[in-house]
Write a structure and sequence with these properties.
Layout: H1 2-13, H2 21-43, H3 45-65, H4 81-90, H5 93-108, H6 111-114, H7 122-200, H8 206-233, E1 240-243, H9 245-259, E2 265-270, E3 278-281, H10 282-300, E4 306-314, E5 318-325, H11 353-363, E6 367-372, E7 382-388
Parallel strand pairs: 2-4
Antiparallel strand pairs: 1-3, 4-5, 5-7, 6-7
Length: about 400
């Protein structure tokens, strides 16, 4: 592209007026900036974009001043397409329109000195208006193409990440299943031996009975952990039926309040009236919400209180549910890891809770995202669950 730019500028330099030194220097300026623009943008994306527009509009304004007897009539006026196209590629729709207006204003500024010596007839007004309209038309067309390309690229990256995560989960699932089955066999032997030891030690004193009880309880705890591994590893079979999302959230909230009876959590519900039911697995979705709400309660419990907000909204393709807490939030450096299996910051955690929740959402064709993390402006964590409508969903 840099080579093509140099060829393009060289072609302009060979066109009349060839001996206009200012024109040639301005074209050299275009070339130097174009070769260095990429580095400037990479070092300072925000300020670099503004600098790129200022430089290109300035150079274009100078060029038409030195290529025509009357600047606004210069045949080089299409040079303003360069900053217009740059704006369309670097900014969103509003920024594109704003910078295109600035470029158009810089071009039309030469109308004032021209009116001192010439009059503007109807034909001249039409020509000027057409040129400005084409600036905006080109800007909007290119900006739309750029925005659609960015959205497509972002969607592709998300899909690739989902595929990679699914492959990792499948491999870890197979490993977990194998380990779980291998662990359960000796656990059963240990459990049975502890029960026999407990019976045989009935009259031998308190210590043997106490030790046998410890063995039995710890085996039960390991069995629970192995069960979680199997839940993560085994394929899910969805029992799809119409479900009421607010009712599922209320049941999950009741479970959390039962587990944390001393927590002083203020709960706010934000459910619009007439929220449609959708087709999903009732048990698995309740498990999703229970995991997220329990995590929120656990995050707020050390502070002795907090605020939990549960809400939902109907969208064109499905229902979006959010759960927001006022806890310490998720540090930015951990946001990309919390959905990975076996990653946890809890001393007694297994790191499978959010991984299983994410797997359930994948099976439903939905998605689970962490929208907000720890920040001074918005403390706490906000998890959003998006569930698509099924074929028999009640959309009202």
């Amino acid at each position: 592209m840099d080579l093509l730019w140099l060829v393009f500028l060289g072609g302009l330099a060979a066109l009349p007026p060839v001996r206009e030194i200012h024109k040639q220097l301005i074209l050299v300026g275009f070339g130097v900036w174009q070769l260095s623009e990429g580095r400037v943008l990479s070092r300072s994306p925000r300020h670099g974009r503004v600098l790129a527009m200022v430089v290109k509009i300035g150079l274009a304004t100078l060029l038409i001043a030195h290529t025509g007897e009357v600047a606004i009539n210069s045949s080089y006026f299409p040079i303003f397409y360069v900053p217009v196209v740059t704006a369309a590629m670097l900014f969103g729709p509003r920024g594109t329109l704003g910078w295109t207006a600035v470029a158009s204003g810089a071009y039309c500024a030469y109308l004032l000195p021209a009116l001192r010596h010439y009059s503007l007839d109807a034909y001249g007004r039409d020509q000027l208006a057409l040129r400005v309209f084409f600036f905006f038309l080109l800007a909007l067309i290119i900006n739309r193409f750029v925005m659609e390309s960015r959205e497509a690229a972002a969607g592709l990256l998300v899909e690739q990440e989902r595929t990679r995560r699914a492959e990792r989960l499948a491999a870890l699932g197979q490993l977990s299943a194998g380990l779980a089955h291998e662990i359960r066999n000796p656990l059963a032997v240990i459990k049975g031996s502890a029960e026999m030891l407990s019976k045989e030690s009935a009259g031998a004193g308190a210590l043997p009975m106490e030790l046998a009880g410890y063995i039995s309880s710890e085996v039960d705890r390991v069995n629970v952990l192995v069960g979680r591994f199997l839940d993560f590893a085994r394929p899910l079979r969805l029992d799809r039926q119409p479900v009421d999302i607010p009712a599922l959230l209320d049941r999950a909230l009741a479970d959390a309040e039962h587990r944390w009876p001393q927590a002083r959590i203020v709960v706010t519900r934000a459910f619009p009236p007439g929220l449609p039911r959708l087709v999903a697995d009732r048990t698995l979705m309740e498990r999703v919400f229970a995991n997220l709400i329990n995590n929120a309660f656990e995050a707020m419990a050390p502070a002795g209180g907090g605020r939990l907000t549960m809400g939902a909204s109907g969208e064109t393709a499905g229902i979006r549910v959010w759960i927001q807490d006022s806890g310490p939030g998720v540090p930015s450096e951990l946001r990309d890891q919390i959905f990975n299996p076996f990653f946890t910051t809890k001393p007694a955690g297994t790191g499978l809770g959010l991984a299983i929740v994410s797997k359930i959402m994948d099976q439903h064709g939905g998605e689970l995202t962490l929208v907000e993390g720890a920040s001074p402006a918005s403390p706490g964590a906000r998890f959003e669950v998006f569930l698509p409508y099924g074929e028999h969903s009640d959309r009202g």
